Amino acid sequence: MRSILLVILVALAIVMAIFLAKGRHARPGAEAPARVNAAKAATLEPILLQVQAALDAYADENGEPPAGLEELLPRFLPRADSLVDPWGTGLRLEHDAQGDAVLVCAGPDRAFATADDTRRSLR
Question: Which end of the chain is more exposed for a tag (fewer CB within 10 A), N or C?
Fold first, then answer.
């Protein structure tokens, strides 16, 4: 009975040592947010291309661009979530100083008019 208990304790000590050793070398908490944002940023381009194609199709059919992105639903885009960036913020349709349409994504900070925004001219 004592030998079984001793084997169990030794096995537990080995498992704990391995677990603690991995904890010292791997720091997933420090790298995880950057990796998640990089993965989300990679999925942004297809979203912008899809919305841009829908805007072009709308303009071709109606002779002018829509006043807002909601006008693309459901004829040109099937779902409202097609107008949401990978970070969960709705895309915006704005106009620059020349009056040209610009598609805007708020980016990782989920706030518009900040340095991480992505802006795509629709000329």
Answer: N
